[in-house]
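RECORD TYPE: inverse folding
INPUT: structure tokens
STRUCTURE:
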């Protein structure tokens, strides 16, 4: 059994090791908040996709 030593009295090296052991990663989880787009708002990118250009003999869709 190890003797208890307060964190402040540990060497910087030991403190660093303990801090590193306490840290975790997010793993497969993305910490960025996800939210769905508002259907009622104007979406400039979507409206440009739906434009249909009529040329002489063909129809081009962008």
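DESIGNED SEQUENCE:
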């Amino acid at each position: 059994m190890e003797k208890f030593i307060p964190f402040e009295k540990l060497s910087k090296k030991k403190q660093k090791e303990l801090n590193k052991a306490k840290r975790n990663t997010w793993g497969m989880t993305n910490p960025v908040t996800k939210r769905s787009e508002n259907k009622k708002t104007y979406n400039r990118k979507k409206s440009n996709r739906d434009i249909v250009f009529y040329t002489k003999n063909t129809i081009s869709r962008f």
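NOTES: The first helix runs from residue 12 to 22.
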